[in-house]
From TrEMBL:
It is found in: Cell membrane; Cytoplasm, Cytoskeleton, Cilium axoneme. This is WD repeat-containing and planar cell polarity effector protein fritz homolog. The keyword Cell membrane applies. Residues 662-682 are annotated as: Disordered. GO terms for cellular component: axonemal basal plate; plasma membrane. It comes from the Eukaryota. Residues 662-677 have a biased composition (Basic and acidic residues). Belongs to the WD repeat fritz family. It comes from Pomacea canaliculata. The keyword Disulfide bond does not apply. Its main location: membrane. GO terms for biological process: cilium organization; establishment of protein localization; nervous system development. Keywords: Cell membrane, Cell projection, Cilium, Cilium biogenesis/degradation, Cytoplasm, Cytoskeleton, Membrane, Repeat, WD repeat.
Length: 692
C-alpha cells in the first residue's frame, strides 16, 4: 500500500527514551561520554557514525557557527510564565542550530500562568484562566539619542484585527437588568489594534456553544465558527457558520447543519477553506465539502485530539492525546506511515508513545508553512510538523517524498503512488474529491494517469467500473462543471474516451460501448459499432447504431447549414475551398463557440441541440438552395473575385459544377452514365469543410 516515510527529532538530552538502534528514523541528542547499556543498544556506535555521516548532530556542541543558512525555519515557543523561546532549525535536517531565550515578558502579566498567547513582531496578546482579562503588549524600539524627536514607527492605515471568543451556555437565563446590552451578552468580540491603542470594533453572540472561531485566511472580513448543540434526546448537531463584518456589524451569511453521533473534540479547515474536518469522540472523522454540499464519514484508528491539514491541502494528520498519528488523504483514504528503518514496516499509525519511557500528552500539532510554488532546489523535499508535548520535550516530525519528484504530496503525486501500488479505487476517490473549476490541471493529470493505466490492463468488470467512474468525473460531475472548463479539457478527454470505446469493442462490450458513443456523440464511433456488431451477429444493435450514425450526421449538417446562413456568397466560396478563417472570425464575433458538431460537444450540449433542432423553419434550406441557384446562373467564366486566392479557374469551375449537380440533374443523366460504362449515377461527392 502507499505509505509516507518520516523521521522524528526529539530535542532533548535526557535519557528518557527507548529508541531501538535499528530505527534510524528517530533521533535524540546525547551527552559526550555518555554511558550506554550495550545490552539494550548493541549498535549505538554504528548508529552514531551513521548519524554523523549524514551531517546531523549526535552530541550538541557549545560553539556554533555564527553564520545562518538561507533556508532556515524558526519555531517559537511561549512558556506558561511568558518566556519566549526561538529555535533555529537546520534546513537539511531537523537539528537545532540556535536557541534564543527572551525573558523580557516574565512577570509582566497579572497572572503567573498564561493559557493562550498570540505573538507577532509588533505586539503580543495573552489571556489567563483564573482572570477574565486580555492583556495586550505593544513592542516599540527606543530611538537613538540624536533622533529622539523623530518618530520611527509609522502607523499603517491597515489595522490588525483580533478575534476573541469563549464558550457560553445559551440555556442560562440572563439576569434582568436595565443596563444589560448586547455587548455584555456577546461571546464573539473583534478588537482593532492600532499601535499601542486597542478598541472594540464589533461583537456578536452565537446561537450554540462555540467549538472554534477564526478569521478567514482568504477573505479577512469573514469569520468561520463551529458550534455544537445538544437536543432533548441527546442528539448532537454541529452548526458551521460564516459571519461577515459589514459596516461595523457582525452578520450571518451562511449556516450549515451537520448531525453527528459523537461530540466534537477538534476541527480543522483546509487551506482552500472549502472543506471542514471534525474529529469526534467516537473515533470518527467527519468532513463537509462546501463545493459538493456533501458530508463524508470514516473511522479513525485513534481517537483524534488534534487535526492538521498539510499546507498542500492533500494530506490530513489526526493525532491522539498519547501521540499516535494517523494519515489520510483529502478523500479520507487512510495512508500507511512508517519511520525510516533498516526493515521498513508500514503501519496504520505512528506509535510515538512507544518511544517514551513515561507517558506523554500531545497538546497540539502544527505545520511549518512553505511556498508550494517555490523553485528552490534541494536534494529532496522535506516537510516539517512541530509536536507540542505537555511537560515534555519539543519534537519535530519530517516527511520525505523522494528525490525524483518535486510534487510535494500533490494530488498528482498521490495518484501516481496509488497506481504504483495498484490502489485504483483510492485513486478514483481522490479524483472525485477534486474540483475541476479550481484544480483543472491536477484533475486532468490524475484522470489521464488512471485511464492510461487501466487501458493497458485486460478488461474485467472491476476495471470497467473504475474506467466509468473516472470518466464520469468529467462527463457526469456533481455539481456541474463550468463551460470554460468544459471547453478547455473537452478535446483531450474525448480522445481518452474514444480509446475506452475501442477497448470495449475489443472485448465485445457492445452495450457499454453504445452508451459511451452516445455520450461522445461521434458518427464514426457508431459506424465502428455497426460493423463490429454485424461481424458478431448482433443485427439489431447494428441497425440501431447505423440509424444513430445517420441521425448524428444529419444533426451535424443542420448545424453547419445554420452557421452558413450568415455568410455572403464570397465567404461561402472561400469556405468550400478549404479556408474557414473568416468563418472562425464570425464565430468569435457572434459568441457561437458551443454550436459545434456533436462529436465535439459535451453531452449536455448535445441534448440542447436535439431539443432545438426543430426550431428552424424549412425556408432556411429553400433560401440556401435558391442562393446557390442564383449563383449558378451567373457567368461561369467570371471568377475575378478569386484572384487573390491564387486558385485555378478550371478548378473553381469544376467545383461549382459539383455543387450544382444535385440541383440541375436531367432525366437522361442516369442513362448517359450507364452508356459511359459506369454502374452508378454520375455524381461527385462533395465534402463541406466546416468546423470539425
Amino acid at each position: 500500500m502507499a505509505s509516507c516515510l518520516c523521521e522524528l527529532y526529539i530535542w532533548s538530552l535526557k535519557s528518557l527514551y527507548a529508541i531501538p538502534d535499528q530505527m534510524v528514523g528517530c533521533h535524540v541528542y546525547h551527552e559526550k561520554g555518555e554511558q550506554v547499556n550495550t545490552y539494550e543498544n548493541p549498535y549505538n556506535e554504528e548508529k552514531q557514525h551513521f548519524t554523523e555521516g549524514q551531517d546531523m548532530t549526535w552530541s550538541p556542541r557549545n560553539k556554533r557557527p555564527e553564520r545562518l543558512r538561507d533556508s532556515i525555519k524558526e519555531v517559537e515557543l511561549v512558556l506558561s510564565n511568558g518566556c519566549i523561546i526561538s529555535l533555529a532549525v537546520s534546513g537539511h535536517s531537523g537539528d537545532v542550530d540556535r536557541i534564543f531565550i527572551d525573558k523580557s515578558m516574565v512577570g509582566k502579566f497579572s497572572s503567573d500562568v498564561v493559557c493562550d498567547v498570540f505573538l507577532t513582531d509588533q505586539y503580543m496578546v495573552a489571556c489567563q484562566t483564573d482572570i477574565p482579562r486580555v492583556e495586550y503588549a505593544h513592542f516599540t524600539r527606543r530611538p537613538p539619542l540624536n533622533e529622539a524627536a523623530k518618530r520611527l514607527d509609522k502607523l499603517s492605515t491597515w489595522e490588525p484585527k483580533l478575534l476573541l471568543w469563549w464558550s457560553t451556555n445559551s440555556a442560562d437565563p440572563w439576569p434582568w437588568s436595565p443596563m444589560t446590552n448586547d455587548l455584555e451578552r456577546a461571546n464573539l468580540i473583534v478588537l482593532s489594534l492600532n499601535g499601542p491603542f486597542i478598541e472594540v470594533l464589533t461583537h456578536g453572540r452565537t446561537e450554540s456553544d462555540p467549538v472554534h472561531a477564526a478569521f478567514s485566511g482568504i477573505q479577512p472580513h469573514k469569520i468561520y465558527t463551529v458550534e455544537q448543540s445538544f437536543g432533548p434526546r441527546g442528539e448532537i448537531t454541529v452548526r458551521t457558520c460564516v459571519l461577515e463584518i459589514i459596516r461595523g456589524k457582525m452578520q450571518t451569511a451562511a449556516v450549515v447543519t451537520i448531525p453527528l453521533k459523537g461530540t466534537v473534540i477538534c476541527q480543522a479547515r483546509n487551506p482552500g477553506e472549502d472543506k471542514l474536518l471534525l474529529g469526534c469522540s467516537d473515533g470518527s472523522l467527519v468532513m463537509y465539502s462546501q463545493h459538493k454540499k456533501l458530508t463524508f464519514v470514516t473511522r479513525c484508528a485513534v481517537v483524534p485530539a488534534c487535526l492538521a491539514w498539510h499546507p498542500g491541502a492533500n494530506l490530513i494528520f489526526a493525532a491522539s492525546n498519547r501521540g499516535d498519528i494517523q494519515v489520510f488523504d483529502q478523500a479520507l483514504n487512510p495512508l500507511r506511515v512508517q519511520f525510516v528503518a533498516e526493515d521498513p514496516e508500514p503501519e496504520k499509525f505512528l506509535k510515538i508513545s512507544c518511544l517514551f519511557r513515561t507517558s506523554v500528552t500531545l497538546k497540539n500539532i502544527e505545520w511549518c508553512m512553505f511556498d508550494a510554488q517555490s523553485s528552490e532546489f534541494v536534494t529532496d523535499y522535506i516537510d516539517a510538523m512541530f509536536l507540542s508535548l505537555e511537560k515534555g520535550p519539543p519534537a519535530l516530525l519530517l516527511l520525505h517524498l523522494g528525490t525524483m519528484s518535486r510534487e510535494r504530496f500533490s494530488a498528482v503525486e498521490l495518484t501516481k503512488e496509488y497506481i504504483k501500488h495498484r490502489q485504483i479505487d483510492e485513486a478514483v476517490s481522490l479524483l472525485e474529491s477534486l474540483n475541476w473549476d479550481t484544480e483543472g490541471a491536477s484533475c486532468y493529470s490524475c484522470l489521464s494517469a488512471i485511464v492510461n493505466h487501466l487501458l493497458r490492463q485486460p478488461l474485467n468488470a472491476e476495471r470497467e467500473a473504475q474506467l466509468q467512474a473516472t470518466l464520469a468525473t468529467f462527463y457526469a460531475p456533481k455539481p456541474p462543471i463550468s463551460e470554460v472548463t468544459i471547453v478547455e479539457y473537452r478535446d483531450p478527454i474525448s480522445r481518452l474516451a474514444r480509446r475506452f470505446f475501442h477497448h470495449l469493442l475489443r472485448y465485445a462490450r457492445f452495450d457499454k460501448a453504445f452508451l459511451l458513443a452516445v455520450d461522445i456523440g461521434a458518427r464514426d464511433l457508431f459506424m465502428d459499432l455497426h460493423y463490429m456488431a454485424q461481424d458478431k451477429g448482433e443485427t439489431a444493435l447494428a441497425e440501431v447504431a447505423k440509424h444513430k450514425a445517420e441521425q448524428v450526421d444529419a444533426e451535424t449538417q443542420d448545424v453547419l447549414d445554420i452557421l452558413d446562413e450568415g455568410l455572403s456568397a464570397e465567404d461561402r466560396f472561400v469556405q468550400h475551398n478549404g479556408s474557414h478563417k473568416q468563418l472562425q472570425e464570425a464565430a468569435e464575433q457572434e459568441n457561437i463557440i458551443d454550436q459545434l458538431p456533436l462529436s465535439r460537444q459535451h453531452p449536455w450540449q448535445q441534448e440542447y441541440y436535439r431539443q432545438g433542432a426543430g426550431d428552424y423553419p424549412e425556408q432556411t434550406r429553400i433560401q440556401r438552395n435558391r442562393e446557390i441557384g442564383n449563383l449558378a446562373a451567373a457567368p461561369t467564366d467570371d471568377f475575378s473575385c478569386f484572384d487573390d486566392l491564387g486558385l485555378d479557374n478550371n478548378l473553381i469551375s469544376d467545383y461549382t459544377a459539383a455543387l450544382m449537380e444535385p440541383h440541375k440533374q436531367k432525366p437522361g443523366g442516369e442513362d448517359n452514365d450507364k452508356e459511359n460504362g459506369r454502374g452508378t449515377p454520375g455524381k461527385v461527392k462533395v465534402i463541406h469543410f466546416g468546423i470539425v
